[in-house]
Structures are given as C-alpha cells and as structure tokens.
From TrEMBL:
Belongs to the glycosyltransferase 15 family. This is Alpha-1,2 mannosyltransferase KTR1. Residues 36-87 are annotated as: Disordered. One of its GO terms (biological process) is protein N-linked glycosylation.
Length: 409
C-alpha cells in the first residue's frame, strides 16, 4: 500500500524527532549511577529533614540564627581546664597541615579559633608537616594556646609520589590541564597535599588514639563565639562530618573522578548507604556545564579547609577501599583531584546524609568565601554575605543544592 508522499515525509520526520529525543535522554545523564537494589528511595523509612529549602530567594544566613539543638556540653567550673587530667574533653584534636613559611598565617587562624572557642575548651593542636618544623614555629604556636601542642612529620611513604605514577604521563597531563587553566596543576606539592588530605592524614600514627578532628588552615578567620563543645556535640548527635561552606569545583580538575567512582561502585554496590546523598552529587541543575565536564558529578563539594569530622569514617573499610582504588588510578596526579571532592563524593555515597551537619553558627572565612551567620555572637563579618570577591564568585555557592536535597540541619 503506497502512502501519499506528504505522509511519508511526515512519518520520516516524526521518526527522526523521536530518535533525536531518545539520544538526548541518554546524553543527559552521562555517568548516572544505576544500582537499583541498594539505592534507597527518597524518604523511605527515614526521617526526612523538616528544614529543606525548595526555593532560594535569599541567603538563609541573612536570617537570625542561634546554636544547634541540645544537648550542648558547656564549661562549668574547671571541667575543661587545660591541665585537668579528668576533663570533659573527648577524644579529639584540632589539626593542621602547614608549612614553616606559613607561621604568621597559622598564628592568625589560631588567634581567632582560640578567642572564639578553644580558650574555653582547650582541645590540643596537632601540627603536621612534610619537613621538620622549625624551633620558631614550635615556640610561637605553643605560645598561642593554653592547650597542648604537638608536631609531627608526615611519613615519606605518605607524601612521596607513589611508584605506580608514570612521570612522563604526569608531565604531559600537567601541560594539558595547565592549558585548561586548572589552578595549581603544575605544583607537585599541591597534588601531594590533596592526596594526603584525602586518604592519608587519618592513617598518621599521631592520630591513632583520636576519634574526632577539626581541620584548620593558615590564614582563615573565625567570627562568632561558640560556647559549647563542638566535638561533644558531634558525638551526642551522632554526626560524622560537619561543614560550613559548599561550592562547585573546577570540573576539569576532576573530569574522571566520577567515572572512576562508578567503576568502584559497580564492584562494591554494598558500600552504598541507604540514606545516601546521590541526588545531591548528581544534581547538575544549577551548573549543567560542570556536570557535563565532570562526566556526571555536579562538582558540588564541602569546602574541606574547614572540616569537623569523625576519623572512623576515613578509616572504614568502604573508604579505605575507595581511596586505594582512586589512588591506584592515578587521578591525584594525572588530574588534580582535590581532597574536598573526594571526601564529598565518599560522604555522599557511603554515609547517611542525616549524619552530615551544616555548622551554620561557626562564622568562618577562607578567602574568598564566608559562612557568616546573623547572630549577636558574631563580629567582623556581614551576616548573609557569601563572598567579598568578584561578583561571579556568587555562582560558585552550591549550598542551595545541599539544602534542597538534605536540609539546613
Ligand atoms: N607542610 C606542607 N603543607 C602544605 C603544603 N602544601 C599545602 N599545604 C597545606 O595544605 C593546606 C592547603 O593548602 P593551601 O595552599 O591553603 O591551598 P588552598 O587553600 O587550596 O589555596 C594548607 O593548610 C597548607 O598549609 C606542603 O607542601 N607542605
Ligand atoms: C580514642 O579513639 C581512638 C580511635 O577511634 C581509639 O582507638 C581510642 O581507644 C580512643 N581513646 C579513648 C581514651 O577513648
Ligand atoms: C547513630 O548511628 C548509628 C549508625 O548509623 C546507629 O546505629 C545508631 O542508632 C545512631 N544512634 C543515635 C543515638 O542516633
Ligand atoms: Mg588554604
């Protein structure tokens, strides 16, 4: 039966439109994770946060806010005195990987954290370096706190470029990604630092008897009085990880992190947590180009220069296997995987999202971004201001996506 020519043309056109749409659907989700059995559905059997944010019309930090929920452990009498052998301090330390040349900048960070929090609780400071600390560094940082300080060398085998890295390939990759403007790509020590912070700091012998840590970098600022034991709060509220700023990464620096992660998850579907934040990791709605370049990962990550965390997570079997897989793949050197995206992807997959906490009350700045609450406890930053840098930096903020999927708890 011969169809009229017009109908044949229409039929063919319809077919090609259909084909085009099918292709679009497949292209839209380049690295989408499909692990049906273990992937929990939103809201299933879990208490969902009542504090989710569907529409972002202003920074929630512009709204007045206070302390997180009770229980809160406070100073009373001498319970947190620095020399109290039976203090209420838990198994925790402030830690910093820092260079001797950054003495002045780490003293700035110490002054702020001591003034706003630690002069009350006196948690020890643990310093790490890939070369020995100078006497001046030790003296001046010891004088900056009443709490104990200790100084440790990073073991060579934790810092050196691993034997399986092909140095020719490394140099070629550096040239390639430099041309794509990946910041710090040419700085070998930056790659080493990111790798150490990703998977090796938790293995340092000096932390063997420590459970919680607060990571502090040189030249950061703290603005708000914090009057409860932050580590005690993590323990009492069963939290694994606390962040305060959430931003997008340079997608070129992590182009194969997601595909490599998907390979790992295919072999280890059992590590996917029922309460995972996969939807957050894959949400490219604000920055589709980032997700495309990063092959399925939005690049949204907890900004890890601030971290309050439970080391048990970084020492868990799931994370150790994952880190080893990533390390073997070479991406810390052939690309410039940051510890922030690596930590964030792992937390989003292996941890229950209710165990990740936004410390909205800890006013903080690491240039060029702020976390600044509107609270009488804060001075020196402007409530609700995210950056004081160029206007385009505003679009680096990905807290809206975290608040949409998880909430502001
Ligand atoms: N000891 C030591 N610390 C380093 C080295 N590279 C980076 N760091 C530390 O690692 C952290 C991140 O480095 P930073 O230069 O602040 O990177 P950025 O915040 O990403 O610009 C800081 O605490 C630095 O002091 C290094 O080669 N040796
Ligand atoms: C502190 O934590 C570490 C690691 O979780 C553990 O091995 C150690 O026994 C703990 N120490 C105390 C005093 O609780
Ligand atoms: C803390 O988390 C663990 C592991 O997810 C869970 O088994 C436990 O019941 C939680 N405890 C509290 C007090 O929420
Ligand atoms: Mg820094």
């Amino acid at each position: 039966m011969a169809l009229p020519k017009a109908m044949r043309i229409l039929g063919a056109a319809t077919f090609f439109v259909f084909l085009f749409l099918v292709l679009q659907v497949f292209r839209a989700e380049p690295g989408a994770l499909k692990i049906p059995e273990t992937g929990a559905k939103e809201g299933e059997g879990k208490k969902e946060s009542a504090n989710k944010l569907d529409t972002w019309d202003h920074d929630p930090q512009a709204d007045p806010s206070g302390e997180p929920p009770e229980p809160l452990r406070r100073v009373s009498g001498n319970n947190y005195d620095p020399d109290n052998e039976n203090s209420d301090r838990i198994n925790a330390t402030i830690l910093s990987l820092v260079r001797n040349e950054e003495l002045h900048d780490i003293l700035q960070s110490m002054r702020d954290l001591e003034r706003t929090w630690n002069h009350k609780f006196n948690y020890p400071w643990t310093f790490f370096n890939d070369v020995p600390f100078t006497e001046e560094f030790k003296e001046k940082t010891t004088a900056a706190t009443k709490a104990k300080t200790s100084y440790h060398l990073v073991p060579k085998e934790h810092w050196e470029i691993p034997s399986w890295i092909n140095m020719d390939l490394y140099h070629e990759s550096v040239a390639l990604l430099r041309a794509q403007k990946v910041q710090y790509m040419e700085k070998t020590s930056y790659h080493q630092m990111c790798r150490w912070n990703s998977g090796l700091f938790s293995q340092h012998p000096a932390l063997a008897t420590t459970q919680y840590y607060w990571r502090v970098e040189p030249n950061v600022h703290f603005f708000c009085d914090v009057d409860y034991d932050v580590f005690g709060w993590m323990q009492d509220h069963n939290k694994t990880y606390g962040f305060n700023i959430n931003i997008y990464d340079s997608a070129e620096s992590v182009a194969t992190l997601w595909p490599e992660t998907m390979k790992f998850m295919k072999d280890h579907p059992e590590y996917l947590n029922e309460g995972n934040a996969l939807k957050w990791l894959e949400d490219g709605s604000h920055r589709p180009d980032n997700k495309k370049t990063a092959n399925g990962y939005s690049t949204c990550h907890f900004w890890s220069n601030f971290e309050v965390g439970d080391l048990s997570f970084w020492r868990s079997e799931a994370y150790r296997d994952y880190f080893d897989h990533l390390d073997r793949s070479g991406g810390f050197f052939y690309e410039r995987w940051g510890d922030a995206p690596v930590h964030s992807v792992a937390l989003g997959l292996f941890e229950d999202k209710s165990k990740i906490h936004w410390f909205r009350d800890i006013g903080y700045q690491h240039i060029p971004f702020f976390n600044c609450p509107t609270s009488p406890k804060c001075t020196g930053c402007q409530g609700g201001r995210f950056t004081d840098g160029a206007a385009w930096l505003q679009r680096e903020d990905c807290r809206p996506v975290w608040f949409k999927h998880v909430g502001m708890d």
